[in-house]
């Protein structure tokens, strides 16, 4: 995938040929990417959706098993679909533009109550929280 870094971490129990094969199943070939880990062994792995709904369960299970085997405590994988609970990039950009406009066009001192309400309406603070 041209959007992934040249080097990245993958579970050691997942063979290179499996990664290559599975990569075609992900939208944009964006296979699982190990993004962050905690000293207790917890990790954040992100990946794109799998294109083929019929293959989704099999591929998802194979990758989750590889991640579990790579965990020092063999903890189960907890999955969360962030598309359902996070704003998309267009919403974030729109909120940022509203914030910029608010900071440029609305003097804080003159209309504090209105300014704070307008700030809340940008949703910027919700998104960065």
Automatic annotation (TrEMBL):
Chain ranges of the Myotubularin phosphatase domain: 1-129
Q: Which SUPFAM superfamilies does its entry note?
A: (Phosphotyrosine protein) phosphatases II
- Cellular component terms per the entry's GO annotation: cytoplasm; membrane
In terms of PROSITE patterns, this protein maps to: PPASE_MYOTUBULARIN
Biological process (GO), any one: phosphatidylinositol dephosphorylation
Q: What family is it from?
A: Belongs to the protein-tyrosine phosphatase family. Non-receptor class myotubularin subfamily.
The record ties this protein, via PANTHER family, to: MYOTUBULARIN-RELATED, MYOTUBULARIN-RELATED PROTEIN 10
Q: What is this protein called?
A: MTMRA protein
Q: Which organism is it from?
A: Chionis minor (Black-faced sheathbill)
């Amino acid at each position: 995938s041209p959007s992934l870094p040249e080097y990245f971490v993958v579970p050691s129990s997942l063979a290179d040929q499996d990664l290559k094969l599975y990569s075609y199943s992900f939208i944009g070939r964006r296979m699982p990417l190990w993004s962050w880990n905690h000293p207790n062994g917890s990790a954040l792995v992100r990946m794109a959706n799998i294109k083929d709904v019929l293959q989704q369960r099999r591929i998802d299970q194979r990758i989750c098993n590889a991640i579990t085997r790579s965990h020092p405590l063999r903890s189960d994988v907890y999955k969360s679909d962030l598309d359902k609970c996070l704003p998309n990039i267009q919403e974030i950009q729109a909120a940022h533009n509203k914030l910029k406009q608010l900071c440029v066009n609305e003097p804080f001192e003159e209309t504090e109550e209105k300014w704070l309400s307008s700030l809340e309406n940008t949703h910027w603070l919700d998104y960065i929280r």
